[in-house]
Amino acid sequence: MRPRFQNRHSIGSFSWGKRLLNFWNVENIKIVRRVIISVVGATILLIGIALLVLPGPAFIVIPVGLAVLATEYAWARRWLKKVRTIASNVVSGHSRTAPRDSGI
Questions:
Q1: By the 8 A CB rule, do 58 and 51 touch?
Q2: What is the distance between the alpha carbons of residues 75 and 68, in angstroms, rounded to a whole number?
Q3: What is the residue extent of each domain of the chain?
Q4: Contact 46, 22 (CB under 8 A)
């Protein structure tokens, strides 16, 4: 005979654990990961943009923010590729456009 006030879903049973595991399935983990990466990457990118007018290493922080966002978004990968190209051209001394002959 069972006690009258016993709850079938008591803390000692595994039903709460199953519900918790069902909540944290693979799809929910992917969504949470994407949100966290978006927030962290956007924050770093915004700090880098603010450092353009404030004293600080903006040209280091902006690519870091884009690199964080590039782990999840294709548009950030494209921008990061452009930033890398521009940075390598600046470091190597090449200009973005070919110099024109003045004809003088």
A1: yes
A2: 12
A3: 17-92
A4: no
